Amino acid sequence: MLAGVVMAVPHIQFSVAVILLLVLLSGCNARIHKLSLNNETRFAIDLNNFGFFANGTLNVSMSSLWLNDIVNYSLYPVGFSLSRSRVNGVLSYTAEDSQELCPLKVTKSTNDEPLILFLIDSKQLGVNVIAMGVQDNFLIAKAKSDEPKEKKKVTKRADVDSISDDSNGKPAKPETSPKQDDKEEIPGGQKNEPPANEKSNAKDAKKVEETTFLLNSSVKPILALDNTNGLYKFSFLLVIGPKDQGLYSLKFHYCQNRVAGVKLPYALTVNVVERNPGSFLSAAEIPLSRLYICMAGVFFAAAMLWVYTLMKHRYSVFKIHWLMAALAFTKSTSLVFHSINYHFINIEGHPIEGWAVMYYITHLLKGALLFITLALIGTGWAFVKYILSDKEKKIFMIVIPLQVLANVAYIIIESTEEGSSEYYLWKEILFLVDLICCGAILFPVVWSIRHLQEASSTDGKAAMNLEKLKLFRHYYVMIVCYIYFTRIIAILLKITMPFQWQWCYELLVEVSTLIFFVLTGYKFRPASNNPYLQLPLDEEDVEMDEV
Questions:
Q1: Quick one: 154 and 229 in the same domain?
Q2: Distances (CA, A) of 370 to 272, 335, 412, 442
Q3: What is the value of pTM for the model shown?
Q4: DSSP secondary-structure letter at 516?
Q5: Domain span holding position 438
Q6: How high is the pLDDT of residue 22?
Q7: CA dist., res. 193 & res. 178, Å (int)
Q8: Which is higher by pLDDT, 339 or 88?
Q9: What pLDDT is stored for residue 254 in this prediction?
Q10: Cα angle vertex 73, ends 71, 76, to 5°?
Q11: Which of 156, 338, 426, 517 has the fewest CB atoms within 10 Å distance of its CB?
């Protein structure tokens, strides 16, 4: 029965992976985000979190926004907020913690952290930009036409590439050029009009003319807001200054829905493109491609060493030893595809679907093999017995479907925009299911420890059973430490370290996994002097039948 379950899990995981990847990956753009919401009622939407180095760029284009006519924009503003946080999940202002106070009404940022508000005024067709805190960010956008021309510096969007690609640590100001009229008067009262084919080019060039603002508390620009058939749209480009690099959080706010009992619907479509100099990855993700490929090599070397050990002690090898080898090779392969996935996101802003599919499939197989192997070792299957009790079989019937659900949640989270409502639902499901799986695999170890305690005091092999009891206790402590480090310590490290060092979270997880694999292999290695394998199999089978 167990063999059939173990063989069926990869097939189940593969089928689920193919279905989900075909549905979700086709619309996944990774660091080039596009979010479309219809009949939305949330008062705040987390669009994205991204770690910017100096001269990084944030390009936001709100292609359509439909608002309810009942909204009182003076009392309940609508718009975007961009705030910097020193560590992940800790914003630079505390108004977000209050359900009554809208973050768009904040008048001062705490600790002088950069905070930029974009307040949408649908009546005046403008977007009021309010910059708070100490910052030297540049805002490039189309200013409202009724602003004084002498305050404008005209630039073109094409010139911004030189800013984002400049890695000298200082944002170079875009070249400016004065406005030129499309039509110049000539003697005689006639106008020098360009040819028809040049008129369209001139209009297109005029559309991309934008104003550059050096943001500070004294500058309050008003951006142009277009209205087409009741749909509002505007865009802006933010260049991060050398003093303002950090982890930024972009949110959309619909403040009237904060009022109890008020759920006014709205529709929003926004495109977000984030870049660091020479990379589409966040500051904490840039080292991950190299980290994963290095760890893949380490896991592969460990797997080859394990296979060498199995071949050397082939007469003491059991089936589960080869299952452990398959787990190590699958882990190494998963890391290789993970590294390739991040490499393409780094240079193109989105993953290549083929490599992404391969990564998710190997990730699913690795997760299934890990929990199955841990549970089988904990029950003593194949080492000292070839049957499982009814309680142990129920553990597998619970853990395996939960692992399928956890992997489904992981794929959906990776393929869904952060601002969608489904993202947070599946994130909570993944966290809960993962904890249940981690707790469930401890039960077989506890049952084996209890059985060995009883057997050590009733049969004539007390010394041998005590040795095995000590080994199982070590294994139990190893599993608890592995879960503790990868689920608790690593997360605490992630939310307390500076934004550019948060990749150490992934390093801690991978190193903890490697140490856990090595210690497990050492404890249960195929050797004639291993106390776990010394008792004759037929006597153990009799003992287990009596139990």
A1: yes
A2: 37, 15, 21, 13
A3: 0.77
A4: H
A5: 2-27+282-546
A6: 43
A7: 19
A8: 339
A9: 92
A10: 80
A11: 156
